[in-house]
Amino acid sequence: MSKKSEIKFLTPFNIENKTNNKKCSFKKKNMNYIDYKNYYLLTNFLNEMGEILPRKITYTTAKQHRKLKLAIKRCRHIGLLPFTTDNFQELKF
Predict the structure, then answer these.
(1) Helices (H), strands (E): how many in the chain?
(2) How many structural domains does the chain have?
(3) Are 72 and 45 in contact (CB under 8 A)?
(4) Phi/psi class of residue 79: alpha, beta or left (left: φ > 0; alpha: ψ in -120 to 50)?
(5) Which of 21-25, 29-33, 76-80 has the lowest mean pLDDT?
(6) Would 64 be classed as within a structural domain?
């Protein structure tokens, strides 16, 4: 018989895990405490209607997201952030 036949299979060549390297912004900055008085930071985690953005969008961990929710709620009770609004984009700094 002749040489070994070269059989080419239809397999992907370089299979790599295409994970997003997006990490929690609080862990990047080594922030353990989220200050509720810093409403400039908290407005980044609210949408235009004043709702808290979910974890999938903000890429925060579950622990940090719970702290973030508590800080936003405290900030709203003090009066630094509105509960709901139609023109929240104008309030962003």
Answers:
(1) 5, 0
(2) 1
(3) yes
(4) left
(5) 21-25
(6) yes
Residue with tokens 């997201």: 65
Domain assignment present for residue 19? The answer is: no
Angle subtended at Cα 29 by Cα 84 and Cα 73, rounded to the nearest 5 degrees: 25
| Residue with the two structure tokens 């508590």 | 70
List of residues 6+ apart from 91 with CB closer than 8 A: 43, 82, 85
CA distances from 66 to 6, 79, 80 (A): 57, 20, 19
Indicate the pTM of the whole model: 0.69
Give the highest mean pLDDT range of 56-60, 70-74, 82-86: 70-74
Return the CATH number at 65: 4.10.640.10
> What mean pLDDT is reported for the chain?
79
